[in-house]
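Morning F.,

Quick status update on the modeling queue. The single chain you submitted on Monday has been processed. Sequence for confirmation:
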Amino acid sequence: MSPKRIGFLTSSNMVGDGPDQREDSYEHDLEFALFAKAADQRGLVLEEIVWDAPGIDWSGFAAVMVGTTWDYVQKCDLFYQVLAKIDGKTRLFNDLATLRMNGDKGYLLELAAKGIATIPTLRIEQCTQGLIDAAYTHFDCDTLVLKPIVGGGAQAFDKVNRDRIIIIVAKLQTRF
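C-alpha coordinates below.
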Protein backbone atom coordinates (compact mmCIF):
# COMPACT_ATOMS: atom_id res chain seq x y z
CA MET A 1 0.00 0.00 0.00
CA SER A 2 1.43 3.38 -0.97
CA PRO A 3 1.56 6.15 1.63
CA LYS A 4 -1.17 8.77 1.75
CA ARG A 5 -0.37 11.96 -0.11
CA ILE A 6 -0.87 15.29 1.64
CA GLY A 7 -0.76 18.45 -0.45
CA PHE A 8 1.03 21.53 0.90
CA LEU A 9 -0.18 24.61 -0.95
CA THR A 10 2.36 27.25 -1.80
CA SER A 11 2.74 29.99 -4.38
CA SER A 12 5.05 30.15 -7.37
CA ASN A 13 6.97 33.04 -5.81
CA MET A 14 7.93 30.85 -2.85
CA VAL A 15 9.44 27.91 -4.74
CA GLY A 16 12.07 27.63 -7.44
CA ASP A 17 14.36 30.44 -8.40
CA GLY A 18 12.29 32.54 -10.79
CA PRO A 19 12.50 36.31 -11.15
CA ASP A 20 9.45 36.83 -8.93
CA GLN A 21 10.82 34.78 -6.03
CA ARG A 22 10.23 36.47 -2.70
CA GLU A 23 13.18 37.36 -0.47
CA ASP A 24 11.59 35.41 2.36
CA SER A 25 11.08 32.22 0.33
CA TYR A 26 13.61 30.50 2.57
CA GLU A 27 10.85 30.53 5.21
CA HIS A 28 8.82 28.26 2.93
CA ASP A 29 11.76 25.87 2.74
CA LEU A 30 12.06 25.76 6.53
CA GLU A 31 8.32 25.35 7.10
CA PHE A 32 7.91 22.71 4.44
CA ALA A 33 10.89 20.72 5.73
CA LEU A 34 9.40 20.58 9.24
CA PHE A 35 5.98 19.47 8.01
CA ALA A 36 7.50 16.97 5.57
CA LYS A 37 9.55 15.37 8.35
CA ALA A 38 6.51 15.11 10.62
CA ALA A 39 4.45 13.63 7.77
CA ASP A 40 7.17 11.09 6.97
CA GLN A 41 7.33 10.00 10.62
CA ARG A 42 3.62 9.19 10.33
CA GLY A 43 3.92 7.31 7.05
CA LEU A 44 2.58 10.19 4.95
CA VAL A 45 4.07 11.95 1.94
CA LEU A 46 3.88 15.75 1.88
CA GLU A 47 3.97 17.30 -1.58
CA GLU A 48 4.49 20.94 -2.50
CA ILE A 49 1.79 22.22 -4.84
CA VAL A 50 1.60 25.68 -6.36
CA TRP A 51 -2.02 26.42 -5.54
CA ASP A 52 -2.98 27.95 -8.89
CA ALA A 53 -1.14 25.46 -11.12
CA PRO A 54 -3.49 24.02 -13.74
CA GLY A 55 -4.60 20.39 -14.00
CA ILE A 56 -4.16 19.17 -10.44
CA ASP A 57 -6.23 16.13 -9.49
CA TRP A 58 -7.16 17.08 -5.94
CA SER A 59 -8.93 13.76 -5.39
CA GLY A 60 -5.49 12.09 -5.45
CA PHE A 61 -4.67 13.62 -2.07
CA ALA A 62 -5.85 12.36 1.31
CA ALA A 63 -5.84 16.00 2.44
CA VAL A 64 -4.53 19.41 1.43
CA MET A 65 -3.20 22.06 3.78
CA VAL A 66 -2.74 25.74 3.10
CA GLY A 67 0.92 26.60 3.50
CA THR A 68 2.87 29.48 2.04
CA THR A 69 0.32 30.83 -0.46
CA TRP A 70 1.52 34.41 -0.14
CA ASP A 71 0.37 35.56 -3.57
CA TYR A 72 -3.30 34.82 -2.85
CA VAL A 73 -3.91 38.45 -1.93
CA GLN A 74 -3.38 39.51 -5.55
CA LYS A 75 -5.68 36.71 -6.79
CA CYS A 76 -8.15 36.47 -3.92
CA ASP A 77 -11.24 35.41 -5.89
CA LEU A 78 -9.30 32.71 -7.76
CA PHE A 79 -7.75 31.52 -4.49
CA TYR A 80 -11.13 30.90 -2.89
CA GLN A 81 -12.41 29.24 -6.07
CA VAL A 82 -9.47 26.82 -5.99
CA LEU A 83 -9.98 26.16 -2.26
CA ALA A 84 -13.67 25.41 -2.91
CA LYS A 85 -12.65 22.95 -5.66
CA ILE A 86 -10.17 21.28 -3.29
CA ASP A 87 -12.79 21.17 -0.54
CA GLY A 88 -15.14 19.35 -2.91
CA LYS A 89 -12.55 16.65 -3.68
CA THR A 90 -10.66 16.02 -0.42
CA ARG A 91 -10.15 17.27 3.14
CA LEU A 92 -8.93 20.85 3.35
CA PHE A 93 -7.03 22.13 6.38
CA ASN A 94 -8.21 24.49 7.72
CA ASP A 95 -11.78 24.18 6.59
CA LEU A 96 -12.97 26.58 3.91
CA ALA A 97 -15.20 28.64 6.22
CA THR A 98 -12.29 29.27 8.61
CA LEU A 99 -9.96 30.20 5.76
CA ARG A 100 -12.50 32.67 4.36
CA MET A 101 -13.04 34.20 7.79
CA ASN A 102 -9.32 34.51 8.46
CA GLY A 103 -8.66 36.07 5.06
CA ASP A 104 -10.64 39.16 6.03
CA LYS A 105 -9.13 40.79 9.12
CA GLY A 106 -12.62 41.90 10.15
CA TYR A 107 -12.76 38.65 12.12
CA LEU A 108 -10.75 40.41 14.82
CA LEU A 109 -13.69 42.73 15.44
CA GLU A 110 -16.11 39.78 15.56
CA LEU A 111 -13.96 38.03 18.15
CA ALA A 112 -13.61 41.20 20.24
CA ALA A 113 -17.40 41.68 20.18
CA LYS A 114 -17.70 38.21 21.74
CA GLY A 115 -15.34 39.22 24.56
CA ILE A 116 -12.30 37.40 23.19
CA ALA A 117 -9.04 39.29 23.68
CA THR A 118 -7.59 40.44 20.36
CA ILE A 119 -5.22 43.03 19.03
CA PRO A 120 -7.08 46.36 19.31
CA THR A 121 -8.56 46.89 15.86
CA LEU A 122 -10.39 49.50 13.85
CA ARG A 123 -11.67 48.77 10.37
CA ILE A 124 -11.56 51.58 7.86
CA GLU A 125 -12.49 51.33 4.21
CA GLN A 126 -10.14 54.04 2.94
CA CYS A 127 -6.95 55.27 4.52
CA THR A 128 -6.93 59.04 5.08
CA GLN A 129 -4.93 61.35 7.29
CA GLY A 130 -8.05 62.20 9.30
CA LEU A 131 -8.92 58.56 10.00
CA ILE A 132 -5.36 57.76 11.02
CA ASP A 133 -5.29 60.77 13.35
CA ALA A 134 -8.58 59.55 14.84
CA ALA A 135 -7.05 56.10 15.37
CA TYR A 136 -4.14 57.60 17.33
CA THR A 137 -6.69 59.30 19.57
CA HIS A 138 -8.94 56.24 19.79
CA PHE A 139 -6.08 54.00 20.92
CA ASP A 140 -4.27 56.75 22.86
CA CYS A 141 -0.96 55.88 21.21
CA ASP A 142 1.79 57.28 19.00
CA THR A 143 2.37 54.12 16.91
CA LEU A 144 -0.10 52.19 14.76
CA VAL A 145 0.11 49.09 12.60
CA LEU A 146 -1.83 49.52 9.38
CA LYS A 147 -2.80 46.43 7.37
CA PRO A 148 -5.05 45.81 4.41
CA ILE A 149 -8.39 44.22 5.25
CA VAL A 150 -7.43 41.20 3.14
CA GLY A 151 -3.83 40.19 3.43
CA GLY A 152 -1.28 37.73 4.60
CA GLY A 153 2.39 37.36 5.29
CA ALA A 154 2.64 40.97 6.50
CA GLN A 155 2.25 42.16 2.93
CA ALA A 156 1.48 45.84 2.52
CA PHE A 157 1.53 46.57 6.23
CA ASP A 158 3.13 49.60 7.79
CA LYS A 159 4.09 50.44 11.34
CA VAL A 160 3.71 54.19 11.57
CA ASN A 161 4.52 56.84 14.10
CA ARG A 162 2.81 60.20 14.30
CA ASP A 163 5.94 61.96 13.07
CA ARG A 164 6.12 60.09 9.73
CA ILE A 165 2.46 59.50 8.91
CA ILE A 166 2.14 62.27 6.32
CA ILE A 167 4.80 60.60 4.18
CA ILE A 168 2.93 57.31 3.83
CA VAL A 169 -0.76 58.27 3.61
CA ALA A 170 -0.64 58.57 -0.18
CA LYS A 171 1.09 55.19 -0.44
CA LEU A 172 -1.49 53.54 1.80
CA GLN A 173 -4.44 54.99 -0.10
CA THR A 174 -3.42 52.90 -3.11
CA ARG A 175 -3.43 49.69 -1.04
CA PHE A 176 -6.65 49.85 0.95
